[in-house]
Amino acid sequence: MIHVDKKLLNFHLQTKHTSYIMRVLPSKHLGCVYYGDKLDDKKPINHLEAKHEIEIGNQVIYEEHDKTFNLNLAYLEMPTYGKGDFREPALHIRYDDGSRTSDFHYLKHDIIDKPIFKEMPETKAYKDNIKTLVIILKDDYRNVEVEMHYTVFYDQDVISRRAIYKNTSDQSFIIEKAMSMNFDTFSDQYQLTTFDGAWIRERMINKRLVEQGIIKIDSKKGVSSSDHNPFIVLAKDQTNEQYGKCYGFGLIYSGNFEAIIERSPYDMIRVQMGINSFDFYWELKPQESFTTPEALMSYSSSGLNTLSQNYHNLIKNHIIKPDWQGKERPVLFNNWEATFFDFTQRKLINLAKQAKKLGIELFVLDDGWFGSRNSDTEGLGDWTVNKKKLPLGLQKLAKKINDIGLDFGLWVEPEMVNPKSDLYKEHPDWVIKHPGYKPSFGRNQLILDLSKEDVRTYIKASISNIIDSANIKYMKWDMNRNFSDIYSNALNHKSQGKLMHLYQLGLYDILEYLTNKYPEVLFESCASGGNRFDLGMFLYMPQAWTSDNTDGYTRQLIHYGTSYCFPQSVMGAHVSDSPSSMSIRKTDLETRFDVNCFGLLGYELDITKLTKFQKHVIKNQIKFYKEHRALLQFGEYYRIKNPFETNNTYIAVTNKDKTEAILGIFQTLQNAAEGLEKIDMYMLDKTIDYHITNRKSFFNIGKFSYLVGHALPIKLNHNGIAFHTLKNRYLYEKEKEDQIVSGDQLVNNGFIPKQNFMGTGINESVRLMGDFGSRLYYFKKK
Ligand code: GLA
Q1: How far is residue 477's CA from residue 685's CA, in Å, rounded to a whole number?
Q2: Ligand 1 atom nearest to CA at 376
Q3: Is the overall model pTM greater than 0.90, yes or no?
Q4: Predicted confidence (pLDDT) at residue 244 exceeds the cutoff of 90
Q5: In principle, which of 57, 325, 355, 612 could form an S-S bond with 333, CB 3.0–4.6 Å?
Q6: In angstroms, how far is CA 547 from the centroid of its own chain?
Q7: What is the pLDDT of residue 708?
Q8: Is the CB of 528 under 6 A from ligand 1?
């Protein structure tokens, strides 16, 4: 709902539970008045604003006739530099005469159907009637306009923002900073959460109090990056998953971005998000305009979990393409961690046969199938099958896999080229590099210059050829290096500052073309794991590989952090071998499943070498996953206990009407005489009685070593052959849970599972979790 008081020029945007209020100030600037719980749109808003009754010392007065008003103490929507606001500007322009002062006043507004900007990923109205408030601001002296777009996603409690900068003058100028959004509010002990990391350590939760000064997170890597996700949370101190007030801000962009949180000397908070102003400049010629990426704001007064669900719902309904919304995803096998580059056609077929027996539905052939690609030193760019390795060719190989009973999918990395490739020999000028420097490499590869149309045409054609050549149902679109040597031989000296953004537009153009051309192909985005895990990519590809780290414990942290913005229905999550090659940590096969089943499940290990025990366990896991797939992939996601702060991870998913839920509990270390547990099932329905069972899962008795006599009623030499043979076959079932408990008790008191191991032995009622142990519980309406 968008309410406008045309006389007073107040703008009141309402979602189901929130209000966002702006007004045109007496100075004609667009002011930010309120963002929080829903307010009555009929009431006057004067009381919401800060009082300015007397001149404040050492400020720049905006206009002589009103000494009480200065821009430095105003809450603004489009702040600029040069008229007395000393905080970060949202827009910074260098004009032809060398001046950098701008000043924008309200000109007019309109309410329209959500407009479509083809060149960039953006939220889509799809079937809903979504309205956008457009407020136009103008710098009269410079003849520059800013279109401020506010789109209201009522049901999701999300408001999207973007600014479009227009040169309506007859002189060019240079934009040096062009934020998508600016939000000003007062400070009240805010805590900032960012989701930071590195390769194999993506989206770790990082909290700090917002003190006076500026905090900036950004990416200069050319991708949104695993260093900092373009999503932040600002919460009142003490806010937790269920209680407290919090704001989220996310950017729909996959390249260099920045997010700024500033607390001024007067304790005013400013939040900005947009394309990184570092290393960016954009010449805007007369009559040209510059459209910024869309930013998404949300507010919740019922804690962080609600905030996350606002984003999850928005992503599920207005970001993911309709064809893939709510569409169950196959259990896949990926050969990467099973073989790396070292595979033959026969090995792949054997893997596929075994995959079928386990219940897997999709076979994905990862890196190494094309050109001269036998290692990561060569071949990228040559998108034709390597017949030495795969004499059958793609079409027949896919057919063979299909005959086994599996769909076939393929890995590609189209944005890259190895110097050792035919493509590079033919087009050495297609890469991003400066003619004066030897280019620097990442994973032995260079980046193709997607600002060039012929490069884009080549990629579109070569990927189309692959898809047309065989029955391909899935494509993993990888991107494995960050940018260096940023220079395009297609741009003049005035335009080099555009390159990183033009690259993104080029990438989006390719993805738009291919994903529309092949709507039935399931595209999965990947960038060395989660180096480009952002709202932008999900507009084209409905899922992404969350991280290259498949360790059963670290993955809990990665999923937990990722879930603040992203639903589990976009997270590719695979069970790999143990010990993990990333951490050399051993975790149980059952734990690895329990972690990854809250996501898009896959297996990525040499399944031709499984023991009987492992085969049985995996079959059982996949059966469970398929039975509960809709709930696990698309259920509402609840965080209960935080592994960043405690020895446990507790998470749950529920269906819409709460008649079904799955709870996952994970223990990091087995502490001596662990405290008693009660699991806060705040998400359940108090009026429902639940039948609670646990997933049937098994111990491998190898775990007990010489203690096996305590666990089993048999005596065995734990170093002997008999024990070795037995441990690869014997299925030692874990304790069974079977209770009926009323929802009001579960919500008000919590769920109490069977007693944890206390160091004194186990029986059929003791829940031995051990280090990195887990359990899944299924709650069903009785
Ligand atoms: C990246 C991906 C991996 C795998 C390899 C193949 O690292 O993240 O999953 O596809 O590339 O080279």
Answers
A1: 41
A2: 12
A3: yes
A4: yes
A5: 355
A6: 11
A7: 84
A8: yes
